[in-house]
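S1.2 Input.
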Amino acid sequence: MSTYATPDYAALASDIKRWAHELGFAEAGISGVSLGQDEQHLERWLEDGYHGEMDYMARHGTRRSRPDELEPGTQRVISVRMDYLPPGTQHAWDVINDAEAGYVARYALGRDYHKLMRNRLQKLAERIRGVIGEFGYRAYVDSAPVLEKALARNAGLGWIGKHTVLINRQAGSYFFLGELYTNLPLPIDRPASAHCGTCRKCIDICPTQAIVAPYRLDARRCISYLTIELKGSIPEELRAPMGNRIFGCDDCQLICPWNKFAQDATEPDFAPRHRLDGAKLVELFAWSEEEFLRRTEGMAIRRTGYEGWLRNIAVALGNAPPSAEIRAALLAQAEHPSAIVREHVAWALVKQRERGEE
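S1.3 Output.
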């Protein structure tokens, strides 16, 4: 039986935010389902081909920008965020500046966040059901076509920066997002206002110049896309700018002035595993497929696959200072069964030789 008389949706909204915090979310907000301008922005982005091989970005049509088409009956979206920066992690710039180490995006160092957050969103839904009875809802964490950043902005959780990442005034940008689509007519929060001003640090620092204009990201040039989403050969002109980034890239966040307010993760499972916050490239390159699968179990790194893992590390080894150890590591994989791996190892060996002759 409901503990709310009518029910009192304003009181329920306040309770939802409190419950979300109790479940480990840093913040929660509520938005409506109107995303007209964001839909136009998405359509232009797709028309420009900036999504590359991510065909799923276009496949779902307007369901991505119209929540009530994805989940009929949706009236409101409860957006949540969870800080992910693990305390005690090696400083990102120190790893990036160590050409013999492999840089892994800070969000991917520990447990994969998808199931963890979805389970907690389910618990949030169960708490709501406990006080109002059955209601319509669906939980999402990167599991369906959802314009999560636009919804989170409208829910007051932050604004979309020029690098297209959500920024929160009190917490920077190192956080995950999740959503609970619901048919409850909850009061909505005020959208967050933008505070990038004239700053363009993220645009200028991007190693591959993937941010082609403010709020316009060409994913085909983005290191996160190249090391995770792209399944084939990395364009040669983009290999050197990748440096030692082997899974994702954080440069645009690292340079953002708002991340001086970034909060450490409170979730222990986000702590780095297998010293991946600064492990040596040669060590990682020596992992067998069995080791890769075992060590990355329950981690986002699995997304790149073993072939992609070796491809990415080969590029980083090619960008490293020449050494006998690196050449030996590359030669050990020169006859790898994968044509993709062989191609990138061959490229890296050429770069090692060229640098050694300088």
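S1.4 Remarks. The chain is about 40% helix and 10% strand.
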